[in-house]
Structures are given as C-alpha cells and as structure tokens.
Amino acid sequence: MYYIKVNRTFTRKYYDGGSNRMSMKYPEFPDDVTYTPIGEILSSRVKGNVKLRGWIYRTRSSGKLAFVIIRDSTGIIQCTVSKNNVDKSDFVNAGKALVESSVVLDGLVVADERAPGGFEIRATSFNVVHFAEAFPITKDQSDEHLLNNRHLWLRSRNMVSALKIRSTVFKAFRDYWQNLDYTEIQSPSFTTSACEGGSTLFNVHYDDETEKSGQKFYAHLSQSWQLYAEASMFGLENIFTVAPSFRAEKSRTRRHLTEFWHAEVEAAWTHNHQMMEFEEGMIVYIIKKVLEENRSELEQLGRDISVLENIKAPFDKMKYEEVIDKLNSMGFDLAWGDDFGYKEEKALTQNLKSPVYITNFPREKGFYHRPDPSDPKSLVCHDLLAPEGYGEIIGGGERVWSPDELVERIREEGLEPESYGWYLDIRKFGSVPHSGFGLGLDRTVSWICGSDHIKHVIPFPRTMRRTTP
Ligand code: ATP
Ligand code: MN
Fold it and tell me: What's the structural domain count of the chain?
C-alpha cells in the first residue's frame, strides 16, 4: 500500500499492490475528496470554496449563528454556521457538538479582520463525525492535571508547536552528521556496564525463565552509548546515534528527565577542538532549520526569535577555573573540583545571548575522559551551555586511548577493570585518538522553544515520579 501526496492540499489515494483500490475504513467518507489544511488558508494560499476536516477548538452559539473554531495540525480558523446557510440538522449539530468533536465541513473562505488569523469560513455544510464527551481539560488547569491528561493535552496548540519544532531538531541533527558522512548506528539499552556513575543507574530484572537453573540476570538501562560507540568506531570511524538514555535523577530540576533523548557522536582520529568546531556548526545548522521550518510555531510559543537569529559560530570559550573565579565573584563559594549544578549554570548564562563552551574540567568526570597530558589534573573535554539561563546541553571531549592509562583511570574511579573486559579489549587492537559528545535533544528543544520546563517539549515525560500515561 502506498501513500501518495498528490498535491499540496493532501489528497490521499490508497492503492493495493499498485492497482486495486482498497476498501475505505470509513465508507461514508469518499477518498477522492481534497481537504484543505487550515494553515493553507491562513497563509492566503487557498481561497474560495473549501472542504475542511478537524476538531472543534472553541465553540459558542447564539440564536441563528454558531461560531465554531476548528483546529487541525496546521492551525485554527473560525467557522460561522448560520441557520440560513446549512441544513437544519447541520445547524443543530453545530450548536450541540462539544469541544474536540471531530467535524467535516464545506464553506467559503472570507477575509475578516475580526477573526483570529484574519480569515473565517462561512459554512455551507457542517457534519459532526464524532460527538466528543465533555473534555476534561479546560482553562487554568494545574500542571499535575495536565500531566495526568497528557494523552489529551497533546492536542493543545503549544504541545503541537513544540513537537513540530522537536521533529525539525531531530531531523536537522541527523542531516548534519549524515552530510559529513557519519554513519548512524544503534547500541543496546540493556547493558551491564555503567559509564556515568552508579548513582543514576536503573536496575532491571532480567530473568531467564527458559534456563533450567532458573538463573537470574541483572542489567542496567543505558545511561549513554559511550562504551558501545567506541567499539563500533573502529569499524565505521565516524558515527552517531539518536536514542533514549536512562538516568535515575533524584534531584528534580526543570531540565532532567529519567528517560531522555540522547544524540551522540563519536569520531576516530579526531581531537577535542575539532569536535567542538563540528558541534558549533551543528547548533547553528539546527537553529537555521528551525527558523526556516517553524517560525509560526516559535511565535505560537511566544519565543523571542531574534535571539535565535543572532546565534553565530564561533562560540565563546572559558576554562573551568575561569568559570570558578567568575562564579565566586558573583557570590558563589566554589573550590577546584566542585561540579556546577543548575544554579551555577543559570547564573552564568542568564544574561548571555549565545552558547558558551566550558573546557578543562577536573578529572573527576567519567573514567573514559582523557586527562590533559600538559595539565594532568584536568581533562581534554568540554561542555556547551545554552544561553538565557538554560545551561548545559552538550558534554563531550577526547577519550583515553592508551590501554594502560584506561586501566589506571578505571581504578582511580574506584571501579574494577575486570568488569570492563570487552571495553578494555577494544583498546588492544590498534587504538587511536578519538573524541565525541552527547547532546540532550529534549534540553536543546526546550531552549529553542524558550520553554520553562523540559516536560513541555516531550510527548510523554518520564521523571522519578511519573511513568504514566
Ligand atoms: P547534568 O550535569 O546537567 O546532569 P550531565 O553532565 O550528567 O548533565 P552528560 O552525561 O554530559 O550530562 O550527558 C550529555 C547531555 O545529555 C547533557 O549535556 C544533557 O544535554 C543531556 N542530559 C543528561 N542527563 C539528562 C537528563 N536527565 N535529562 C535530560 N537531558 C539530559
Ligand atoms: Mn547528570
């Protein structure tokens, strides 16, 4: 079965094996009708008589006239249903149908300054496909209520806008690295090797019931593809992935999820400073694509678009110790070795209009980060902080590539080299310098959308206290 986009107003045609027409799921609706997306009307590309389909967004009626605002995935438009212009039953149904009822209608596009978006539809027919029950989401609902009804809240204008921007960001990330000839690959989510510290590990039971011994296995959920990336890199050289990572984040912040979408890159024969340049290019590319594709969604979300328009590479760079000094001069009390949390990153970035790199972190990060040969107390690494108070969106750097140094680093972190057998093995056969990074896609989208919480930009957010809906 094929789906063919016949023209820009989305006529759908279904074919079976390329020739026989399939029977329709809803036989009462012909499949050769052209429906106009609301966005096409609002952007003045379509005039005259149209057929629309969508859902009731708002509705009120008075005597002879019903004002029904219709939404589809491309916009909202006011539709007036007058007793004089439609069948009696259509008029009755238009007055009766509640918010979120699905409808199909015919009408004439009329420019009208008073209508939201500048156009309205004067209906000539109005069919209610399904009468909705009373919608449980009305104005001024608590965050908790909206999260409990996330399956319904996904219809909201803001969610739809954020998810469209999210889709552009995912595509732009892939396109950017594919254009550089990087290969997309996948790593497992069940694993036994931790790479980002034990405190955020999720443990899963992994019982093998077919095993006569009734043996029980244990696994973790992946925090990062890091160790698998390094194994895969020796064959493919330049690779990337887009996958969920899992971290049991105990501290609840507006930028941590327990399941987040991680875009990770690894490249052989590549140094930290080179990877940083690629990353700048990637951020600029992603923003350019969002500005091209999603201007109306950014406006819907109330984003200050000028900030995005002014982001240019190269980004400013600061060393970790300079950041410590700067933060202390702002009233913090930090010593060498202290980690930055949200408070620190917020203070550092809230007046910035462009992302900033922090480099030369102390060596207490992950064991796979490479200590700086010219300053062994720090690492050859970087974080990228988004401006406007958002903070870290990327963590990356050069990896330890000498087998002996790697064993040393694993011991230094209080871990046992024995449990990293296969990972150590890959260093024994032609090790090379390499670098990579992880970009939090949800955090990136949150920043681009100007959102005040990461949960607003992912369809079904997962936190320590929420796994439903
Ligand atoms: P943070 O200090 O903010 O917890 P991190 O140092 O643990 O971040 P990394 O291990 O470097 O983060 O992961 C790479 C990127 O993945 C981060 O820069 C961030 O964008 C994203 N990320 C990490 N943890 C989360 C999370 N719990 N929720 C959403 N995104 C995350
Ligand atoms: Mn973290």
Answer: 2
Q: Is the CB of 194 under 6 A from ligand 1?
A: no
Report the nearest-CA residue for atom 22 of ligand 1.
Answer: 440
Q: Answer yes or no: are the C-beta atoms of 52 and 71 closer than 8 Å.
A: no
454's tokens:
């990461």
Helices (H), 180-304: 226-236, 272-293, 295-300
Cβ–ligand 1 distance for 249 under 6 Å, the answer yes
Domain assignment present for 59: yes
**Does 374 share its domain with 253?**
yes
For position 153, what pLDDT does the model report? Answer: 97
Q: Which residue, by CA, sits nearest to atom 7 of ligand 1?
A: 196
Strand partners, 75: 72
Domain boundary among 130, 162, 183: 130
Per-residue pLDDT at 227: 96
Mutation choice for ligand 1 from 221, 225, 262, CB with most ligand atoms inside 8 A: 262
- Nearest ligand to the CA atom of 256: 1
Indicate if ligand 1 lies below 6 Å from the C-beta of 443: yes
Please tell me the predicted confidence (pLDDT) of residue 212.
Answer: 64
Asked if residue 281 is part of any domain, the answer here is: yes
**Are 76 and 213 in the same domain?**
no
Q: Does 142 fall in a domain?
A: no
3 state SS of 160: helix
Among residues 103, 35, 36, which one has the least CA distance to residue 66?
103
Is residue 140, in this structure, part of any structural domain at all? no
CA of 396 to the centre of ligand 1 (A): 11
Determine whether the shortest distance from the Cβ of 259 to ligand 1 is under 6 A.
Answer: no
pLDDT for the residue numbered 192 = 87
| Nearest residue by C-alpha to atom 9 in ligand 1 | 395
- What is the CATH classification number for the domain harbouring 123? 2.40.50.140
The pLDDT of residue 221: 96
pLDDT tens-digit map of 97-128: 999 999 999 999 999 999 889 999 999 999 99
Pocket test for ligand 1, best of 200, 224, 256, 381 (most atoms within 8 A of CB): 256
Q: Which residues of 348-360 are buried (b: 16+ CB within 10 A; e: fewer)?
A: bbeebebbbbbbb
Q: Structural domain of residue 295, as residue ranges?
A: 151-457
Q: Which residues of the chain have pLDDT under 70?
A: 1-30, 208-216
Contact 224, 199 (CB under 8 A): no
Residue matched to tokens 């999603």: 294
CATH number of the domain within which 304 lies: 3.30.930.10
At residue 194, the pLDDT reads 80
Domain shared by 330 and 427, yes or no? yes
The residue behind tokens 């399941």 is: 259
Question: What's the confidence (pLDDT) of residue 29?
Answer: 61
Give yes or no: residues 125 and 166 share one domain. no
